[in-house]
Amino acid sequence: MAPSAVSMVFTVENAKSPNSLEKGQKPPDGHSFDEALELAGFGKVQIVLSILAGLGMMASINEAMGMSIILPASQCDLDLDAGEKGIVGGAVFLGTMFSSYFWGYLADTRGRQLILKYALFATSFFGAISCLATGFESLLVLRFLTGVCVAAPASTVYAYLGEFTTPSRRSQMLSFASVWGGVGIVYVSLVGWWILSYDWVFVISDSFEFKPWRLLFIVNTLPAFLNGIAFCFCPESPKFLVSRGRNEEALEILKKVYKINNGTDNADGYEVTTLRLDPEDAIAREQNGDASVGLFRSMVQQTLPIVKLPYLVYFIICCVHNIGAFAIYGGLGLWFPEIMNQVFSQQATHEDRKVCTILQRNDTLPVVTELEICDDEVKIETFLYTLLLGVIGCIYALITSAVLGRIDQKVMMVFNCIVAGVSGIALQFIANTYAVAILFCLEIVFAGYCVLLVNANVVAIFPTNVRAMAVALTNMIGRLSCFVASAVIGLLILENCPVTFYMLSGLLFLCAGLTFLLPKK
Q1: Closest C-alpha to 464, from 280, 289, 341, 292
Q2: Of 37, 83, 433, 484, which sits with the fewest C-beta atoms within 10 Å of its C-beta?
Q3: Alpha helix locations (H) across 263-354?
Q4: Where are the alpha helices (H) located in 327-362, listed in sequence order?
Q5: How confident is the model over 166-181, as pLDDT tens digits?
Q6: Per-residue pLDDT tens over the stretch 410-461
Q7: d(Cα 30, Cα 295) in Å, to the nearest integer?
Q8: What whole-number distance in Å separates Cα of residue 151 and Cα of residue 98?
Q9: In sequence order, what are the residues at sequence separation of 6 or more whose Cβ sits closer than 8 angstroms to the Cβ of residue 253?
């Protein structure tokens, strides 16, 4: 799907674009929203909002990927085994899955900006108090609640940013915002490296000690808190306001966008005086008009358009895309530091061993007895290769942001799936340790970037009144696969490493083929 052809509204037949109107001439029935947004210009507003949206994505990454560093450091104090670490690491994704539907409903009915700011504050609260966990059960509950809250910024930011950006630049700006996902991985690896280098202990009671790994919970969630403060000063999505019949408020916001982007003190040069009601907005207003509808029925009505043809087919395809992308990006990504730890540990005594040989060999090692001392040291490789993963993600996001406007979005989706799938297969035949690390990074980064492309597709395909719901539902399905993958993928690799990687790569190849069934917009 070419980004230059993406449109969030149905255009009126024979309607003139802003460029086809003579200067000062206004359409007799008012401007469509996309025309009004085009006339407001592109500049500081979109750049600032893309940074804030990126910080929302970063908040989600921090809470998920931060656990890959915290868990090895806390396993002795919390008495966690490998299975419990996988479950706790995936608890954020489980919480996200359970709450995504409800957040999508609220974002589509109450507003994007309102939901974003409160959800970010709630995320930072539960993220911070996770440091008070005293065992597996308490940590599981707190991480689950963190996931419940972070589900809102993880998906709603796509709809929010997309509705402030013209169709020709939408995918490009979403891609630019995704750079902050890589920044988030760099952030958690650097602050983890720094904080876990200390060994201080504050004894609070006989059963509770505050150690550096507990401080990491607070530091990792700081971006979410600051992002919540920033969103308090942001306007509501004008596209959402139009869909709710609040045209005057939407027009005032568009005038402010015009003034900021053009550096003027007034909006006298802004040609838009009225906004034309697009068909999808008319449908949304009709659905929103019955105030007597109960919550459950309202949520059902909000969902029905998604499960009707042709949207049902597109919805299923996007869900399959997210299942493949999240299983690798979240599931394999969570185990990545520990896998690389094992690879480099074995390399010291057994050179030129393939990754699956090393991982399955470790499964046959003697079981640790209760008399052995628990090792909670996080080795330097954990930080280095998590850092490398984030750097590669940032670089690739920046490159893609520069070229996405010139390359068909479907081509980018297919390219990412194929590169990630081939990297997973190549891991079975490469023995060089550093090449293995690079291939792991490529597989995780390219699969993770598919999440952005899927969300960009959803924003482009689905109408305003169900857009946030559609993004939330596809992400809910994706995060379910992420939780399952994070809980079992480590065990599956130990049981049958080659088959596990072949299955993951096959899923990505399936996603590449399904991409061609998505509509052109």
Answers
A1: 280
A2: 83
A3: 279-288, 295-303, 311-326, 333-347
A4: 333-347, 355-362
A5: 888 887 888 888 889 8
A6: 888 999 999 999 998 998 888 777 888 888 889 998 998 888 888 888 888 8
A7: 34
A8: 9
A9: 235, 236, 238, 241
- How confident is residue 259, by pLDDT bands cut at 50, 70 and 90? very high
* Three-state secondary-structure class, residue 408: coil
Q: Are 374 and 76 in contact (CB under 8 A)?
A: yes
For residues 53 and 162, the answer to whether their CB atoms sit within 8 Å is no
Q: Quote the tokens at residue 103.
A: 């957040």
Angle at 275 between CA 271 and CA 277, to 5 degrees: 155
What lies within 8 Å, CB to CB, of 461 at 6+ separation is 311, 314, 318, 470, 518, 519, 521
User: What amino acid is encoded at 461 in this protein?
Assistant: I
- Residue 516's identity, in one-letter code, is F
Inform me whether the pLDDT recorded for 375 exceeds 60: yes
Phi/psi at 511 (5° precision): -60, -40
Instruction: Find all residues with CB under 8 Å of 206, minimum gap 6, and list them.
Output: none
pLDDT at 8 over 70: no
- One-letter amino acid identity for 499? V
Banded model confidence at residue 379, pLDDT cuts 50, 70, 90: confident
In this structure, what are the phi and psi dihedrals at residue 197, rounded to the nearest 5 degrees?
Answer: -75, -15
Alpha-carbon distance of 200 to 217, in angstroms, equals 16
Helix (H, G, I), strand (E, B) or coil at 24: coil
CA distances from 269 to 24, 26, 40, 244 (A): 9, 13, 10, 27
The answer to whether residues 385 and 65 touch, using CB atoms and an 8 Å cutoff, is no
Residue corresponding to tokens 């959402």 = 240
490 touches 90 (CB < 8 A): no
Measured CA distances, 328 to 148, 280, 450 (Å): 21, 35, 11
pTM of the complete model: 0.77
pLDDT at 149 over 90: yes
User: Once rounded to an integer, what is the mean pLDDT over residues 374-394?
Assistant: 80
* Residue 198 exposed, middle or buried by CB count within 10 Å (0-12, 13-18, 19+): exposed
Question: What does the block give as tokens for 44?
Answer: 């500081």
What is the C-alpha to C-alpha distance for residues 400 and 508, in angstroms, rounded to an integer?
Answer: 19
- Residue 354 DSSP one-character state: -
pLDDT computed for residue 490 by the predictor: 63
Question: What six digits make up the tokens of 149?
Answer: 């809250």
Locate tokens 């790994």: which residue? 213
**pLDDT for residue 361 is more than 50:** yes
Cis amide bond preceding 235, omega within 30: no
